[in-house]
Amino acid sequence: MLNVLIIEDEEPAAKRLQKMLKEIEPDAVVLENIVSVSSAIKWFRNNAAPNLVFSDIQLSDGLSFEIFKAVEVTSPIIFTTAYDQYAIEAFKVNSIDFLLKPIKKDELENAVIKFKKVTSASPVPAIDINKILQSFNPSGVEYKKRFVVRYGEHIKTINIEEVVYFYTEDKVNFLCTKDGRRFVIDLNLDTLESTLDPKTFFRINRQYIIGIHSIGEMLAYTKSRVLIKLIPPAKHETIVSTERSADFKLWLGDEK
User: Fold this and answer.
1) In the predicted model, is pLDDT for residue 50 greater than 80?
2) Statement to judge: residues 120 and 32 lie in one domain
3) Most CB within 10 Å of its CB: which of 46, 47, 124, 249?
4) Helix (H/G/I), strand (E/B), else coil: 155
């Protein structure tokens, strides 16, 4: 029996992958289909390692690489992605395979065959996430483009262009949109800081990450700090911390 975990936020793609996998490997059992980085981290922390993982790269709440930074995953991983074929070739490291969407049945079959050969010959080497990130994008990061949020019984997506700033309050993380609406998000500011475009967003202190387009007014403050008036107005006083002030001024001039 082959126990498989699928990490994929597009339902049609997940169903198609499951269907082809059952045709290729009738004994395969899909343990679960997970749709986000946060839920995948929780799953790996509370479940035994599957025999094989299929993981999309771009998920609703970030890159799947964040999963493997947060928890140790000993299972072999086959990444699926919509990115260019040439980028995929650069990824083929550490006995991991990459499949280009839409996945073709013969390519999936070859990936499963490769998995069987690798695991029968020797243990799968540890995943070098940094090496993968460098191969995937020479600049080091694929910046976040949208968020999935819940309000009441509703679920909606918010494009990054609609977001003006992020903040944390009482250990809960929020994003604020141009029209002043605030939504709870799963990602903390540390994770957000590494997935947002640094030309557009800057972390001014432990509590706030602001967008360049959210700045309404800036005032000199004590100890070389800067007091910022945000648009729409923030619930708290927003001051650039002393240790971040120099970098903030460089960021304003796009010199980072």
Assistant:
1) yes
2) yes
3) 124
4) strand
pTM: 0.53
Residue 86: per-residue pLDDT: 42
C-alpha neighbours within 13 Å on the C-beta side of residue 188: 7
Cα torsion through 199, 162, 79, 28, rounded to 10: 160
Same domain, 104 and 201: no
Return the number of other C-beta atoms located less than 10 Å from residue 85's C-beta.
Answer: 9
Q: Which of 61, 92, 62 is nearest to 79 (CA)?
A: 92
Is 80 exceeded by the pLDDT of residue 170?
yes
Q: Is the peptide bond before 125 cis (omega within 30 degrees of 0)?
A: no
In this structure, are 28 and 123 located in the same domain? yes
Q: How many CB atoms are closer than 10 A to CB 23?
A: 12
Residue 94 lies inside a defined structural domain of this protein: yes
Q: Do the Cβ atoms of 162 and 144 come closer than 8 Å?
A: no
Distance CA 174, CA 46 (A): 26
Q: Please tell me the distance from the alpha carbon of residue 8 to that of residue 190, in angstroms, as a whole number.
A: 24
Domain assignment present for residue 142? The answer is no
